[in-house]
TrEMBL record:
InterPro entries documented for this protein: Aspartic_peptidase_A1, Aspartic_peptidase_AS, Pepsin-like_dom, PEPTIDASE_A1, Peptidase_aspartic_dom_sf
Biased composition (Low complexity): 172-183
UniProt-recorded name of the protein: Peptidase A1 domain-containing protein
SUPFAM superfamilies reported for this sequence: Acid proteases
Similarity comment: family membership: Belongs to the peptidase A1 family.
MF GO annotations: aspartic-type endopeptidase activity
Catalytic site: 147, 325
Lineage: Eukaryota, Fungi, Dikarya, Basidiomycota, Agaricomycotina
Pfam short name (any one): Asp
Gene3D superfamilies cross-referenced by the UniProt entry: Acid Proteases
Intrachain disulfide bonds: 160-165
Region spans: Disordered: 159-183
């Protein structure tokens, strides 16, 4: 991946997105801080010393609510849809990597994923880690999911008349003076027949005032009603993984912002929290973590794939590959590995499909929640029971559903670690040095 050096820019940009709605709609809040800083990251562990920048920006973010429960009780269709969404995303990334390289990245990933017949129920008070970007000149606004588990940018096109596109904002190429159609097509297709496809374009993409010119993306012209995003509030995806898993096969927005001198390093960091959440591009915000950042090397430049371990109490229940994925809510792993992990939890039992909507979820006694932690290069992060608990299985509230889920159709030798853990860490994605960093958040 070509990463030419760019000029240092000691400046800061801020994007604020807030939209409210009422019945049968989601509520979102996104205040994304983009701080452009020259960052020197030279060792495996670095202290929280000040970065050369004009100022740090503290931006409050409302708590992300859980769309997986209502009134404390889990919603079966929502739990099932979480699993299906992860299976679909990794099937797409695996297929793109094989197309780009001719190699198999993982075993166990299949494109034949069963579709959930029951749609996700829109609950009030749902909050998503999503924000606005603009595409084109003048800019056309879209609500986007910033996703470290994928590498393509796509939004619906104004030419899309299928039901899946209907709820979303749409891109009109003729309204942009910088739009350029390219050869080839973009397509996401799955064994259950759900699809999203469209042409490939370049245009100016702007995030918080930072513009990447000639950015490749797809304005999809067809999005089936069964497609994963048809009922989601976000319009599309902005992938933050490596372009080796890109179906379009072109530089990502991080690549372009860096090569065009808009950020001083191909580094970004997430802080997801009850308050004060933010996304930084081009560096890290020392005001958002304490102590040092513990870095773990990547095992490949595909996903943000690294290694770590997960413990139940003092017992290491899993140790191995982990994909750090901001676009996934829970923690997902292969069936056998997750089953082994849950065997260490006293009183754990498999959740029935009638309650949890699919296989792979587990329940535990709400009165005796397990102590769950993840460790990276010696740095340990504990998941509080309030985040690990997805909801109860009945009104009595005696058994709770845990946030570690087993399923087929995902990498057979890696866990997909989502927001359940990321809310406990300050997470740094350092592309130049091929590593992920974890620090104790403030």
């Amino acid at each position: 991946m070509l990463l030419p050096s760019g000029p240092q820019r000691d400046s800061a940009q801020l994007l604020v997105y807030r939209a409210s709605s009422h019945r049968n709609r989601f509520t979102f809040t996104m205040l994304t801080s983009v701080v452009l800083a020259a960052v020197a990251i030279a060792s495996t562990t670095v202290s929280a010393s000040p970065i050369a920048e004009n100022k740090a920006i503290a931006i409050p973010l409302h708590k992300r609510g859980t769309p997986l429960s209502k009134d404390g009780k889990v919603v079966a269709s929502a739990l099932a849809r979480q699993v299906t969404k992860v299976q679909r995303k990794y099937a797409h990334g695996h297929a793109a990597y094989k197309k780009n390289t001719g190699l198999e990245l993982f075993k166990g990933v299949s494109s034949k994923v069963k579709r959930q017949a029951e749609p996700l129920i829109d609950e009030e008070n749902d909050l998503l880690w999503a924000g606005t970007i603009t595409i084109g000149t003048p800019g056309q606004s879209f609500l986007i999911d910033f996703d470290t588990g994928s590498a393509d940018l796509w939004v619906p096109s104004s030419s899309c008349t299928s039901s899946g596109c209907a709820p979303h904002d749409k891109y009109t190429s003729s309204s942009s003076s910088t739009s350029s159609k390219k050869s080839g097509t973009f397509s996401i297709g799955y064994g259950d027949g759900s699809t999203a496809s469209g042409p490939i374009y370049t245009d100016t993409v702007t995030v918080a005032g930072l513009s990447a010119t000639s950015q490749y993306f797809s304005p999809v012209t067809s999005e089936s009603s069964s497609f994963a995003f048809a009922s989601d509030p976000e319009d599309g995806i902005l992938g933050l993984a490596f372009n080796s898993i890109s179906a379009i096969g072109q530089p990502t927005i991080i690549d372009n912002l860096y090569s065009q001198g808009k950020i001083s390093a191909p580094t970004f960091a997430f802080r997801l929290a009850t308050t004060g959440s933010e996304l930084y591009l081009g560096g890290v915000n020392t005001a958002k973590y304490t102590g040092s950042i513990s870095y773990v090397p990547l095992t490949s430049k595909t996903y943000w794939l690294t290694t770590g371990s997960s413990s139940v109490g003092s017992t290491v229940a899993y140790s191995g590959a982990m994909i750090i994925d901001s676009g996934t809510t829970v923690i997902v792993g292969p069936t056998s590995s997750v089953s082994s992990w849950w065997s260490k939890v006293s009183g754990a039992a498999a959740c029935s499909t009638s309650v949890c909507g699919t296989t792979g979820y587990y329940t535990y006694l709400c009165a005796s929640p397990p102590t769950v932690s993840f460790t990276f290069n010696g740095a340990k992060f504990t998941i509080p029971s309030s985040d690990f608990n997805l909801g109860t299985v009945d009104n009595a509230g005696t058994r709770c559903v845990g946030a570690i889920v087993g399923t087929s159709g995902v990498p057979d030798n890696a866990w997909i670690v989502g927001d359940t853990l990321m809310k406990q860490t300050y997470t740094v994605f350092d592309q130049a040095n091929s590593r992920v960093g974890f620090a104790t958040p403030k």
